Each structure stands twice: as C-alpha cells, then as structure tokens.
Amino acid sequence: MDFMKILKSFEEFIFEAVSWLVFFPLTLWRVVRHPLRMARYADEELSDPLREQFKDALSPPLFLLLALLIAHALEIVTQAQLPEQRNRLAEVVFGTEQNLLMYRTITFGVWPLIGSLYLLRRQRIAIDRETLRRPFYVQCYLAAPFALVLSTGAAFVGHAGTTAPLVGAAIMLVACVWYVAVQSHWLRHVLAVPWWRAWLATLWVLAMGIAINTAVAIVLLSRA
Fold this sequence. Notes:
It is a single chain. By secondary structure, the protein is mainly alpha-helical. It has one domain (2-221). It is 80% helix and 0% strand. It has 8 helices and no strands. Helix 2 packs antiparallel against helix 6 (129-157), helix 4 (88-95) packs across helix 5 (97-122) and helix 5 packs across helix 6. The chain is globular, with a radius of gyration of 19 Å.
C-alpha cells in the first residue's frame, strides 16, 4: 500500500514537472503581454479552493523560482564568473548549486516582499500571513520576468574583455525599465494615485531592494 502511494506521488511529480514545459512559457508570455491582467488573476485565484488554484498557469512563487532556475542554467552554459569566495559565509552560499539557487530566490524575493509591505501599509491593512499572501503572489508574477532578464544580463556582464558586458548592461537596463513601468502601473491601479506618485513608489521599492541586496553582497564579498 505504501509502495502504491509512493508510485502515485511519483506519477504526480512527473506530470507536474513535464507540465512546466508548457505552463512556464505560457505564463511568461501572459505576464509580459498583460501584466495587470495577470496581477488580477493571481489575486482572484487565491479565493478558489486550493486544488482549483492556478489550473491554467504556474503559481507565482513557482513561476519566480523556475525563472531563476532557467537564469542559473544559462549562467552555467555561458560559464559566467561567480564572485570570489572571500569568507566562510560566501563559501557556504556559493559552495553548492542548491545554496546558490536558494540565495538568488531570496534575493529576488526581496522585491515582491517590499512591494507587498508597501501596499499593505498604504492601505492600512494589518500584516499577517493571509493579508501578505495576496500582494506577494501578485508581486511574484511581476518580479519573475524582471529576475529572468536581469539575471541573464548579469551573466553576460561576467564576461570581461568582450562586448558581452555592454550587452549585459543593456539587458539589465531593459529589465529595470520594464519592472518600473509595470510596477507603477499596478500601484496606480490598486491605490488610485497619480502617475508620479506611482512612479516614485516604484522607484522606492526598487531602490530598497537594491540597497538590501547590496548590503548582503558587501557582507559576502568582504574579506574574513
């Protein structure tokens, strides 16, 4: 009986993993083409029973994770240089593929978290697991293309001595412009604020994420 349960679980895993080949590009296309519509979709799906949620798309956190996994695979293919491991903490973070992927997931998860906290604060909603989940899921949809393109650009920047760094910098700039445009559009829609306030809020969210990740990077790159 236990063997049959294990086999059934394995069958479900196989189907789920293979379905990602269909639903990842589909979800990516829908988010890039209609970001606000997908933001509403994420919010609405959380009202459905658990088994009925995100039947025709990837769930937002999984979408973000797979985007980072693809970016990491591209980095391996292009043989991008990892930061020098100057202390024990850096050795742990960059020492294995699993730890590196977890670090990058948390790194890019900072922006959805900050965006969600900002929204709840502006709406004067108490922060708990349930109130945070909805905006966080929405933010994961918006952050995933940003993470994929930004990480791809960073992989090219790691190749010194060629035109690759310039190409990588241009790709990273495109990622930031897209994220600011989409995030400001979403905040303007949800908070019903003027464009300039939505843009300022988005720049604040982006800057806070950069500041936090820069501080962590300084710790990791500092000598022991």
